[in-house]
Amino acid sequence: MDAVKHKIQIHPAPFSRINEVDFSDIPFGKNFADHMLVAEYADGKWGDAVIQQYGDMDFGPSLATLHYAQSVFEGMKAFRNGDRAWLFRPEKNYERMNKSCERMCMPAIPEDIFMDGLKELVRLDKQWIPTSEGSSLYLRPFCFATDEYVGIRNSSTYKFVIICCPVGAYYPKPVNLLVNRELVRAFPGGTGDIKCAGNYAISLYGTRQAVSKGYDNVLWLDGMEHKYVEECGTMNIFFVIDGVAVTPALGTILEGVTRDTLKILLKEMGVPLEERKISVDELKAAHEAGKLQEAFGAGTAATVAHVAKIGLDGVDMELPPIEQRKVGPALLSRLNDIRYGRVPDPFGWMIEI
Ligand SMILES: *Cc1c(COP(=O)(O)O)cnc(C)c1O
C-alpha cells in the first residue's frame, strides 16, 4: 500500500515498572507496560515510528479529537508460553483499522508501522505478557486527529499510538442482558461496522439503564425496526437454537475477529452455523419451546462470555446452566489451547514474535 519503508526507532525506557504490578490480580486496562509506539502524520505522510517509554502526551485544549471524535481504535492480544510469544491474527486488526480510518476520513496506517511496530513493541515488553490461563497482554492501537482547531473539517495531522496492558484471567461470570427497544448503537449508513470512538460514547446511556435495572449489559437491536438482534454490549453475539449456532449477519454490526474465529472453529467441530437476521420474537418462541440452548458474546476482551439470562419486555428468559452447554465452553477451550501454544495451530493464526 505504502511504498515508503518506515523505520521503527527504539528508545528503551531507562527503568522498568514491572515490579509495581501484582500479576496475580491484574485489573483490566489500568497498568500499562513500559513502552508505547508513536507515529505522526503531517504534510500528507507518515513519519518513522518511535518506541519510547509509556508516558503523557502534550496537547492543547483545542485538539480536534476532543471535540469531534475523529478517532479510531483496535483491540487485540499477545500470548506467551515460556519464552515464546505470539500475536493472534494481527492482520485482521490491521485491515479493520484501515477500514475504520477510511470511514473517518483518516489516512491509512502503513503496514510496516502497524505490523513491525507491534512486533517490536511486544518483543520489548515480552515480560509484561502474563502466562496464567485466561491472561494476556492487551494491545490497543489507536489513531486520532491532532490539529488544534475547533472548526469542523478533517484534521491534517494525526497520531498513531500503540499502548499495551497486561490483563488477568477473566473469570467469566455469566452475563445478564437486557433488550433495549428504544436506544440503538448502529443503523444502516452509520458507523456500527467500524471501531470509531463515538460508537462507544453513544452506547453508555443504554448500558447505564441496563445496569440500573440489575442487568450487566444491553442486547442491542437493529436501528430500523428495533426487532432484530445485533450485538451485546461491545461484543458480537451467538445463539444455539436446537443444536444450530446462529449469529447476526454482517451489515451494521462490527465484524469481530473473535466472531470470525468462532465461525471457523464451529465448522471444525461440525456444528451447523447460520448467519442471518434473528428477531427477538424468534428468540422468545425458541425459549418457550425449550430450544434456546445457549447464548454467548464473542469479543477479544472476554473471548466467550456466556449469557445467563435475557430480559425482554419485562420477562426474563433464563438459559440452561453453563455445565449443560455443549458449544460455548468447547469453543473457549479449543481457542485457548491454540492461543497458549498448547496444541498445533492448524489455521496459521499465531504469529510468533
Ligand atoms: C471490538 C468489537 C467487537 C469484537 O471484535 P473482536 O475483534 O472480536 O474483538 C464486537 N462489537 C463491537 C461493537 C466492537 O467494538
Explain how this protein is built.
The two termini are 23 Å apart. The protein has helices at residues 64-68, 90-103, 111-124, 197-212, 257-269, 280-288, 328-339; strands spanning 8-10, 35-42, 45-46, 49-53, 71-73, 76-81, 84-88, 136-145, 158-167, 175-179, 217-221, 229-232, 235-241, 244-247, 273-275, 292-299, 303-312, 315-318, 350-352. 24% of the residues lie in helices and 30% in strands. It is α+β, with helices and mostly antiparallel strands. Strands 1, 2, 3, 4, 5, 6, 7, 8, 9 and 19 form a ten-stranded mixed sheet that branches. A six-stranded mixed barrel has the order 10-11-12-13-16-17, surrounded by four helices. Strand 17 (303-312) and strand 18 (315-318) form a beta hairpin. The structure holds pyridoxal-5'-phosphate.
